[in-house]
Amino acid sequence: MFRKRLLYLTQLSAVGLAGYCAGQYSGKIGNDDSQAVTIDGKRVQSMPGLPIFGTVSAATPFNDMGSAKDRVSQIMKYGFPSLDNVRSYDDFVLSYDRRNRVPNWVFEHITKAHITKNDQVDRSKCDFKPDESIHPFFRSQNSDYKGSGFDRGHMAAAGNHRLAQTHVDQTFYLTNMAPQVGDGFNRHAWNRLEKHVRKLTKVYEDVYCCTGPLYLPRKESDGKSYVKYQVIGANTVAVPTHFYKLVVGRSADGALHMEAYVMPNQRIADDTPVSSFMVAPEVIERAAGLLFFDKIHRSQLSTVNGKKV
């Protein structure tokens, strides 16, 4: 019995000694500046259990993560369609498609305040620019669009972000762009759809809008269906065949109303009503491979495309 107790005390002492030695060793590492690395201009010690990452990719500055996190939670209140390469800006959130150099989706939360004319905000001061937080292998550049015949089409519309100059500036990052036919589409039909979404803020307290590209199949002369799309520039930026918008409006009484649209990336006649591009939400979800507003059960929606659920 005495031997067992002695053996137990010996083992316990060994564990304690090992822990003390490990602590002393980690303390030496912590005080050894040669073990530190520099991240965003700050020296960070390499401690056991603390991985050191070479780069941190985020559009939102680290020192503003408190308020940025709150805004992201507000914008993404009803769920993320996916978690691939998500970038959070001051007033919108997107998922970036590194292969196609365009967004997978872009989410916005819009109210009357966001679209009200603001003399402190001047769109003419904005410049299209690449997002430096994207790895150079996967960035699109202004040179890709130059001479291509396509516009740099906003997914998060500049007119939806008039609270601050920085907000509208950030909508001009090329991560928020996709190649769009200019005359007859980006500057006309697509612009009318964007204006329609802004008008919804007169009807609803909150408007949540998700926008993105689609690459839809088309039947060729051989009877087979193919997904074909053009690419432009040295970085082979994909030209989507179609674009979608899904919108959820929350009324003052808490009722939720959804609208879903798909538009072909081509010239569209000016007399074509926006409503003619309405589709069932699941059509977009199947085509995009994404689930939108998945925190809202369809039974919670009062209407979809103006019809009662």
CATH class of the largest domain: Alpha Beta
Q: Order the strands across the largest sheet as they lie in space.
A: 3-4-5-8-13-14-15-16
Structural class: alpha+beta
The residue ranges in which pLDDT falls below 50 over 5 or more consecutive positions are 25-32, 44-58, 60-64
Mean pLDDT: 86
Q: What overall geometry do the principal axes of the alpha carbons give?
A: globular
CATH topology of the largest domain: Extracellular Endonuclease, Chain A
Going by CATH, the homologous superfamily of the largest domain would be Extracellular Endonuclease, subunit A
- H/E series, N to C? HEEHEEEHHEHEHHEEEEEEEHEE
Descriptive account of the structure:
This protein is of the alpha+beta class. 26% of the residues lie in helices and 24% in strands. The strands form five sheets. The chain has an eight-stranded mixed beta sheet with strand order 3-4-5-8-13-14-15-16, sandwiched between helices. The protein starts with a helix and ends with a strand. Residues 25-32, 44-58 and 60-64 have low confidence and may be disordered.
Question: What would the keywords be for this entry?
Answer:
309 residues; alpha+beta; Extracellular Endonuclease, Chain A; 2 domains; eight-stranded mixed sheet; two-stranded antiparallel sheet; 8 helices; 16 strands; globular
